[in-house]
UniProtKB/TrEMBL annotation:
Species in which this protein is naturally found: Nocardioides hwasunensis
Keyword Phosphoprotein: yes
Name of one Pfam family that matches: HisKA_3
Protein name: histidine kinase
Enzyme class, first EC level, given as a word: transferase
Transmembrane segments: 82-100, 106-123, 130-149, 169-197
Gene3D superfamilies linked: 1.20.5.1930, Histidine kinase-like ATPase, C-terminal domain (3.30.565.10)
Phylogenetic lineage: Bacteria, Bacillati, Actinomycetota, Actinomycetes, Propionibacteriales
Reactions mediated catalytically: ATP + protein L-histidine = ADP + protein N-phospho-L-histidine
InterPro entries: HATPase_C_sf, Sensor_HK_TwoCompSys, Sig_transdc_His_kin_sub3_dim/P
GO MF annotation, one: kinase activity
Region Disordered: start-end pairs: 291-310
Composition skew (Basic and acidic residues), residue ranges: 295-308
EC annotation from Swiss-Prot or TrEMBL: 2.7.13.3
Residue span, Signal transduction histidine kinase subgroup 3 dimerisation and phosphoacceptor domain: 230-295
Amino acid sequence: MPRLTSRALEWFGVDDTWERPRPAVGRQDVVLAVSVEAVSLLALELVRSAGGLTHTDIPWWGQWLAVSSGAVLLLGRRRWPLTVALLAAAHMFVAGVTMPEVMGQLSLQIIYFVALLSGVAWARDRRATVVVVGTIVLFMFAWLGWQFAVGSAVQGWMDDEDLSETTGFFPAIPAAVLITLLVNALYFGGAIVGGGVSWRAARQRARLESQATTIAAQAGRLRDQAVVDERLRIARDLHDVVAHGVSAMGIQAGAARRVLDRDPDAARRALSHVEEASRDAVTQMRHLLGTLRESTGDRTSPTDEGRTTDAGVCDLADLVAEVGGQGLAVTLDVVETQPGASGRLPRGIGLAVYRTVQEALTNVRRHSTADTVSVVVRIDEAQPRPYAEAEVVDNGRPRHGTSGSGLGQLGIRERAATHDGQVDIGPRMTGGYRVRVRYPLKGSA
């Protein structure tokens, strides 16, 4: 018995800290109350016209008042659920004592049912809910017992139905008592169970909404963190690239100073190299500042293990060899329109190509069923639109349960934006997945 009581209290949510929001009385409640009142008054008059209220001494306006006051209770069924449930129980008792034929009308019975159901469904204090509902049920069944003991409810019902003689398996009076108890048990039990189901469904919806909000907030933070981390890595990489360019300018400037007097042509070539290196460094710094301008927050980037700031197209063969194997065949093709074009790529572009291929292959390994991957790097220095392009194509489908967060692709797009690259990422019509990024070559290597 204690275990059953504990489970019942748990079902009612007695120890649950969640409180269902109670809306103010609104248009929905007004429409419901007015509609119920109109239908109830119409039904009352139809019953009266059919001669069903012959034993009621209350005048018609008193009957109308009883029906209307019951319908009005529905206005506050969500705002003040327990109060409405208590008032509905009191209304049922008073109407049942003074005008039982009116109280027994289907419209009023529906009103009482909805009021009790709403009390269980919308109450915020679950302990008070158990007390109020338990009090109502005990009072109603005590009232039934009193009618059975000292009243004439059973005999009157038998006389109305002409059940003075036994025609079934059970005696008339016990059968009348049992059917009355059964109907009331189903009536009140149905209201309580329905209200409890409604409350638990609302609580589940609130939990799902809270979880969805939390997941969205976490996804947003992860996305922002990924952007910041990628931008910091780009900043470090480009710092190395620009530092290399500045060092080259210093070396060429020193060489020009040494040969300026005895070999003006050599000095001129050295100074032209300084000019080209400075232009390339300024261009890359401008890209860097444009990409990082929207970065917010003071966050510490995680340590980059195995940084490859000197990597380029020439290092892709080692990367492909490292990723391939264990059921994954990776091929690499470097297509150069002009011989030696890969060696003349700006250092930043070469690193960006390497990073793009690296991230795309990592995504294939983690999230795809592919067994074949093709890596193609195309370099065309022909004017007016020279470019370097990295394309990674696989033959797989997304692996179930490893959808990923999309942060790797976000990093590819961030890096491409640093160099004004064009990105094409997505599934292919013929099957498989493709990552293609084209970097424009704006200057000489």
